[in-house]
């Protein structure tokens, strides 16, 4: 599974909860995917996806 798939899976999990933060999460993911695609083939592309993944999953880790 690729990094983009990981980020999308985070969105699916977060949106499947009763949390009220679904819309900002989707907005962050869409932005991250767009930026990563715009910089495809560069180190920055991977950094964008990694940083977004970390930012969106860190508060929910146990």
Quaternary status: single chain
Number of strands: 0
What's the tally of helices?
A: 3
Give the fraction of residues assigned to helices: over 70%
Strand content: under 5%
Indicate the overall shape. elongated
The arrangement of helices and strands along the chain is HHH
Low-confidence stretches: none
Mean of all residue-level pLDDT scores: 80
Q: What separation lies between the terminal Cα atoms?
A: 23 Å
Q: Roughly how many Å is the radius of gyration?
A: 12 Å
Number of domains: 1
How would a crystallographer describe the biggest sheet?
Answer: none
User: What structural class should be given to the helix and strand makeup?
Assistant: mainly alpha
């Amino acid at each position: 599974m690729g990094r983009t798939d990981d980020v999308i899976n985070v969105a699916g999990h977060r949106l499947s909860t009763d949390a009220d933060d679904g819309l900002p999460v989707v907005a962050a993911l869409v932005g991250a995917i767009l930026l990563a695609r715009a910089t495809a083939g560069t180190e920055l592309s991977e950094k964008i996806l990694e940083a977004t993944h970390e930012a969106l999953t860190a508060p929910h880790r146990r």
